[in-house]
Amino acid sequence: MRRPLLDIEGLSARTADGQAVLLDVSLLMGPGEVHGLVGQSGAGKTSIAKAVLGILPRAITLNEGSIRFDGTELIGAPAATLDKLLGTDIALIPQDPMTALNPSRRIGAQLTDSLRLKAGLSKSAAMERARKLLEEVHLTDTRRILRAYPHELSGGMRQRVLIASAFALNPRLIIADEPTSALDVTVQKQILRLIRRLQREHETAVLFVTHDLGVVAQICDDVTVLFSGAVVEQTTVHHLFRHPRHVYTRALIASNPRYDQPGASLRPISDEVIADTLQSLDAKGAS
Ligand SMILES: Nc1ncnc2c1ncn2[C@@H]1O[C@H](COP(=O)(O)OP(=O)(O)OP(=O)(O)O)[C@@H](O)[C@H]1O
Ligand SMILES: [Mg+2]
Q: Is residue 43 within 6 Å of ligand 1 at its C-beta?
């Protein structure tokens, strides 16, 4: 790999009452790569995403490890360093397109904020750029959308607006935390294709958080499988589906019989597999 864009090494985190949230997590991403972070609820996916963005809740403390973005250490970095990176070099596509937008401000005002603040564009130049961004995410009638309030748009349209916003300043890394899970299956597929197309056009690296292996198969190059805060398998997507090594990965694949179809319903993973997985992590000294 060329110089890594994101280099997470030995990251461990706990809650205030001592419960492990992340256990020695390491992850490397090169420029322009799409890396899937997959695991069941509570595995620690969002915690990794939030650690990179420096927005972990107070209840979670990082104990060990480092997160380097293009060589710069983010843990403990001065606020000015993080401020400079976040929103420009590193952007977020959030999970819930309703709560991520301010309900009382027009789409145009929300889209132009960062263009004016961080790119220093004038009000009219920012509005014109915002209109072009909406075209890029295949929204039509862009002038009307810029004047609209979030509740006047459908869920899929709002998510397109947020994707436009994430790509607005041409970031090098986008963190997408389950960006399609609030959408119905057809819209989900369109949004995934859209993210993939923009990602390729802009050569943006994407850390893609999902619990859905179908999404991983469709969009990712590499994948990290998390279980209970620990990495159980890390490989290329091509390899993951052909030669899954860990019992938990095999169970995860078996739980979604149509992983070529994102959004298909999952079968539960058996207690036996869970027990075996915990045992294998114990053997690695992760407990
Ligand atoms: N604000 C919080 N306070 C205390 N514990 C938290 C908080 N947020 C998350 N946790 C704990 O951290 C662990 C990992 O949670 P995280 O949200 O990272 O999982 P996840 O893989 O994103 O799950 P999901 O698929 O449900 O989004 C869980 O055990 C959870 O209880
Ligand atoms: Mg989460």
A: yes
Using CB atoms within 10 Å of the CB of residue 116, give its burial: 0 to 12 exposed, 13 to 18 middle, 19+ buried. Answer: middle
3-state secondary structure of 4: coil
101: left (phi over 0), alpha (psi -120 to 50) or beta: beta
Q: What DSSP element (H or E) covers 162?
A: helix 155-167
Query: Does 21 sit in the ligand 1 pocket, CB within 6 Å?
Result: yes
CB distance 23 to ligand 1 below 6 Å: no
Whole-structure pTM over 0.85, yes or no?
yes
DSSP letters of 169-224?
T--SEEEEESTTTTS-HHHHHHHHHHHHHHHHHHT-EEEEEES-HHHHHHH-SEEE
pLDDT along the chain (287 residues), means of 10: 89 95 97 95 94 93 96 93 90 85 95 92 96 93 96 93 93 94 83 92 95 90 96 95 90 74 66 80 63
Contact criterion met (CB below 8 Å) for 175 and 91: yes
Instruction: Label each residue of 80-144 as H, E or C.
Output: HHHHHHECCCEEEECCCCCCCCCCCCCHHHHHHHHHHHCCCCCHHHHHHHHHHHHHHCCCCCHHH
